[in-house]
Amino acid sequence: MIDDGSRHRSYCLLLFSRVDTHEADLREQAAKYGLEAEIDALLRYLETHGEVDDDRLPEWDEYQELAVDYEM
Asked: Which of 2, 20, 39, 58 has its CA 20 to 30 A from that of 26?
């Protein structure tokens, strides 16, 4: 990720939700770059519909609005 802010994480979430990403491959690449915790938080966020305690992630309603804006 370029930046650690909510905006960039929101775009990562949109990308993960849109493309067919194999979780094992994603986790392998995350480990390669030392991003295991970040990827875990993003995947849990999507799986639980925002039930993740992380201030760097948007509220679920905000994420849903962004997804609608991008027609996803």
From this structure: 58
